[in-house]
Specification:
The complex is a heterodimer. By secondary structure, chain A is mainly α. Among the domains of chain A are: 135 residues, Cytochrome Bc1 Complex, Chain D, domain 2; 26 residues. Chain A is 44% helix and 2% strand. Chain A has seven helices and two strands, in the order αααααββαα. In chain A, strands 1-2 form a two-stranded antiparallel sheet. In chain A, helix 2 packs across helix 6 and helix 5 runs antiparallel to helix 6. Chain A is globular and about 80 Å long. The two termini of chain A are 44 Å apart. Chain B is an all-alpha fold. In chain B, 71% of the residues lie in helices and 0% in strands. In chain B, helix 14 runs antiparallel to helix 15. Chain B starts with a helix and ends with a helix. The model of chain B has no long low-confidence stretch (mean pLDDT 91). The chains are: A mainly alpha, B mainly alpha. At the A-B interface, helix 7 of A face helix 4, helix 5 and helix 10 of B.
Amino acid sequence: MMRRFFAPLLAVGLLAGVAAHAEDTLSPLRFQSAGTFGSIDLAAAQRGFAVYQGVCASCHGMDALHYRDLQALGLTPAQVAGIAASVKLSDGSAATPDSRFKEPAAMSMSGAVPPDLSSIVAQRAGGTDYIYRFLTGFGPAPAGVTLLPGSNYNAAFPGGQVFMPAVLHDDAVTYADGTKATTAQEAADVAEFLTWSADPNLSARHAVGLRAVIFFVFLAIVAMLTKRRIWRQEG
Amino acid sequence: MQTEAKQGWLASRMPGMSCLCAMLRERRAPGASWLAVLPALLGVLLAVLLASGAVLSVYYNPRQAYASLQGIAHEVRGGWLVLSYHQIGASLAFALLYLKLFHTVLVRGYRAPAEFGWMLWVKLLAVLLLTGWLGFVLDGGAGGYWSLFNATGAAMTLSGFPGAVAMWFFGGPVGGATLARLLVFHVLLAFCAVGIILMARAATRRAQAVPQGRLVAFWPVYAAQYFAALSVLALVFAVLLGFAPHWGLGAQNAIPASTMVVPVSISYPWYLTPVAGLAGVFSGVAGHIWAVIAAVAVLYALPWLDRSGGAPPGRFYMVLTWLLGLDVLALGLVTAFPMGSGLPELLTFWFFFHFLVLTPLVTMMEAA
């Protein structure tokens, strides 16, 4: 929707630049979902789902989602059915598009329970950016930091120590669209996917919001002018 | 005319209808301030809250509060919009009510014969605060759960009549059925708020001096003003709806409630923060409860704390009232973003000092 409004502007001013760098959203880091007029980058969110399914899903559930919801990311019903069929639920049966995302077996990382990721972007200060910084924030502990047994150093995590290990690495998944699966790319994609799951209507909300604001700006101006005119005549 | 014939037909069969029609037809003095439309806008917002709340209540399940709200946002067609209408409607209703109360204090609109109307506005504040808190709790989020846990735990320590009232309200310590119970009170209080606002508006109007001189009809003069104000409100509503749906609500309540994870501090929606800050200053169960009751009570008693008689507000009083507004604002801010110890205590002290000491003194001085 936003494209329709801004396409002419973009075409005039930014054509060359946008065309040349359309895929490079990592340096500098830029999320299409960020900002007032942001919308979900469906391609990135699809790749993010692949990362979730291949890596995150072994510990983290997403109980607000059904497999059919993936159609909102641009997957066809057949593709969704294929994805669901490849998932073996805990009772041994294959999932269907109407199944909720598979709940991983209950587990604890040294007492820390992996949180459900459905709304994680809404639940953490910093949202999408924080998820990216967290997933790319693992590393060796700086001098002077003593880690608790079983914990890992993470620069973005409040307190610096987290029981979740670094799970993303280059080529942890293979992207169907040929994008090179670097750690940063995987983190950015899964952050976009989680942004979508926390607010599936983000794109629609921004599009509806912009139209409503434009409408009410005009209505308010007309109503104000009418009021002034009536009050000058009668007030 | 056809319409008047219909009105006459209805008025002769249903008491009170002629009064409603007369309200629209009554002639008023020209040139009323924009602030005079606040009660009407508040009424519109309450209507939005009731309508969106009616939709939400169909899908809401108090025994799985968090999951059912996620279902509304994800599964119900247009559910995310209705949920936003409800959240933003509540935010704006509080904003307008705070504005209305502040303005009434500023221009001393609470003095006789308007004191009855003022008391109704304060009652509306008390009812909406309780309704708003219940709404916060009904989210099933982490903040709401632990706020409820503290409230029920505190209520169970009460004995005698207050204990009986608390037991009737909460039904015991927080458990699986508590939210089902509180949902009933949330809805009930919302309807009470509608009744109170209608009474408050009628009482405020009756207290106004009978307009003299040239009068104008509601249509089109005031209809134009109401419509303009309503379209500005709709604009603000649309901005929040599209671009800041969770403004002032905090991220904590987006986390599902867990009995195993206690938050370091509870973050409230912005409109509850001044009250939460004020209650937090006093220690103990009785302290929290009495602090809130006392804060509402000093507002309620304002017509008698003001010793000015009929004198117009002086400059010093105006300055102090603005200071009070900033004080309440700051109290909300330091509750939302804790900074420096002693600040909430100071701001709470000033709140009571303003009403109990400064108001009687200054109004007496300025009247003399």
